[in-house]
């Protein structure tokens, strides 16, 4: 998606260890107009997919997910990164964060991720795919069906996308970063 | 706002200690159509206010804030609840959570909350106002101007709204809960 690629080149910042910061328009400050355009692109790419629920993880996934849900007129569920004290009836999985070198729990209520749900997962980043694997686990535990996964930015050199596609999952990424070597952002055409 | 009040009566759940759970349409599962309608209502209520930036706190504030930002075509910044390791140039404040009986840090980058910014803060809940006080502190530290605070739901019996209005802040709440005594949801007309 050209508008996103152009924005990454303009405002993305590269750090050692394959880190791409897009705090200017996605992860801290958000550009709602671009967010809506990206949601439209997801609607187009998943046009032939039957979906009844959008799923994401807090916090940076919420903005793109709510825009997709708004366009498709579907409920949006955000999985939480800690088990809230007032929540019962939870499905939980553990995710290892490569960036932060620690594990965290991700949970979702059975009330909102239900057997038979046709779930489109939307998130900001796909890197090594650990968060995505956690989502696959949650969707399976809920006896729901994962019909697609859409990411704003995929870092293909970290191979999470390879894994997901090898599982037969319909993965769409709006910008694919092939390399951040020498802090040069190389985006797939 | 009638649609929100009706939805709270229909789907809100009351727990001991003055807790109102709206996990069905705001805090875990989100209704994007209602979210957009609430954003329209904020636009109307702050129609005569000059705003150049929307500010919120992760995670439940992001959805209403991005919708307001989308309608007004303004950038949306979400304050973070922990200091990210890759962030420099941060403003930080400490907030006491009454519900969870612990403090947490809220931070925002000086790159995105800047001197002279005219900031509309949007969040899901206003209860005792501790998070809002943290936001006031951050906005002051940034030498920005807080031009208004909009909340989806205010629990007036916890008096955060009284405090904010006494400071001369323009506060708008789309539904005001007067009491949750005996687990009866009483909403202001």
From TrEMBL, chains A, B:
Annotated localization: Cytoplasm
Q: Which residues bind xanthine?
A: 20, 27, 155
Keyword list (alphabetical) reads: Cytoplasm, Glycosyltransferase, Membrane, Purine salvage, Transferase, Transmembrane, Transmembrane helix
- Binding of 5-phospho-alpha-D-ribose 1-diphosphate occurs at 127-131
Q: Could you say which enzyme class this protein belongs to?
A: transferase
Q: List all membrane-crossing ranges.
A: 54-72
The protein's annotated catalytic reaction(s) are: XMP + diphosphate = xanthine + 5-phospho-alpha-D-ribose 1-diphosphate
Q: Which Gene3D superfamilies match?
A: 3.40.50.2020
InterPro entries for this protein: PRTase-like, PRTase_dom, Pur/Pyrimidine_PRTase, Xanthine_PRibTrfase
The protein's GO terms of the molecular function aspect are: xanthine phosphoribosyltransferase activity
- Domain Phosphoribosyltransferase: residue ranges: 38-155
Q: What is its EC number?
A: 2.4.2.22
Could you give one GO CC term from the UniProt record?
cytoplasm
Q: Which GO terms describe its biological process?
A: purine ribonucleoside salvage; xanthine metabolic process; XMP salvage
**So, what pathway does this thing act in?**
Purine metabolism; XMP biosynthesis via salvage pathway; XMP from xanthine: step 1/1
| Function statement | Converts the preformed base xanthine, a product of nucleic acid breakdown, to xanthosine 5'-monophosphate (XMP), so it can be reused for RNA or DNA synthesis.
**What protein family does this chain belong to?**
Belongs to the purine/pyrimidine phosphoribosyltransferase family. Xpt subfamily.
Q: How does it assemble?
A: Homodimer.
Q: What is this protein called?
A: Xanthine phosphoribosyltransferase
Provide the species name.
Phocaeicola plebeius
């Amino acid at each position: 998606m050209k508008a996103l690629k152009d924005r990454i080149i303009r405002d993305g910042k590269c750090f050692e260890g394959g880190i791409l910061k897009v705090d200017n328009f996605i992860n801290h400050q958000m550009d709602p107009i671009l967010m809506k355009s990206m949601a439209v692109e997801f609607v187009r790419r998943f046009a032939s997919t039957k979906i009844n629920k959008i799923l994401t993880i807090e916090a940076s996934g919420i903005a793109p997910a709510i825009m997709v849900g708004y366009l498709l007129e579907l409920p949006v569920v955000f999985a939480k990164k800690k088990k809230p004290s007032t929540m019962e009836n939870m499905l939980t999985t553990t995710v290892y964060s490569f960036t932060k070198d620690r594990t965290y729990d991700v949970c979702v209520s059975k009330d909102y991720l239900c057997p038979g749900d046709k779930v489109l997962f939307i998130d900001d980043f796909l890197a090594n795919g650990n968060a995505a694997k956690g989502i696959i686990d949650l969707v399976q535990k809920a006896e729901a069906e994962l019909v697609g996964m859409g990411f704003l930015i995929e870092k293909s050199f970290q191979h999470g996308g390879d894994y997901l596609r090898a599982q037969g999952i319909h993965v769409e990424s709006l910008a694919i970063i092939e390399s951040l070597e020498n802090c040069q952002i190389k985006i797939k055409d």
